[in-house]
Design brief:
The chain has one domain: Purple Acid Phosphatase, chain A, domain 2. Helices cover 25% and strands 17% of the residues. It is built from 7 helices and 10 strands. The two termini are 16 Å apart. Bound molecules: manganese (II) ion.
Amino acid sequence: MASDLHLESRRGECVSNLLRYNGATALLLAGDIGPTALVAKAFERWPVPVIYVLGNHEYAMSAKLQTAPPSGEKWLNRNVLLLENGVASDGNNRIVGCCLWTDFDLLGQQAHAMELAKGEIAGGARGRRTHTPAPETSLGWHFSSVNWLTEVLSTATTGRTVTLSHHAPHRRSLVQYRNHSNFDAAFASNLTRLLRKTDIWIHGHLHHSLDYQVGRCRVLCNPLGSVGRPNGQFIPNLIVLLV
Ligand SMILES: [Mn+2]
């Protein structure tokens, strides 16, 4: 499992130089991997199926995603399965996936957090074109995903449940480098009630490694990070056992 490979800034790099196959039955990618067409091509020949959710950078790079976001399960090719409010199952264990976004309300100051996000989008573009959705738009998508997760995680399953998202489900994901400003609310939401219904939650978006427990749920993040500031803790062959 991995996230935030940012292939858009690693053009020409072969993914087998970034990730090592570890014998797992699937590879889970938690967003910010690269432009979707590039991701599909890069992982078409990965030894096992690749289960993938979009990150905010995939949206930023595509006008089409913003106007027509995916929904459900979509095979990008014979090996790469994109989930957006979609489920992948091996008949026993299940992976439920979405980009997730945030409610901007982590610190209880939603309006200010949304203003900060707007400023960041405008500043981050620096004259370049970005298709990052407006906070009001991503807020709607967040609630759609939370409603969908609430429903699907409430249905019984025989095996383990893994939730795969780009944005984080708990404020503990922020502690290592963010300073608890309202902009943190663009990274994580308080979804403790959903953590109670999942065994493992894998996310990206933060560019530091995480492995912590909230109740029964293990939360993991294994991002490679940007070319300029790669995550030194990144594990190229990290495997999670569903036991
Ligand atoms: Mn990223």
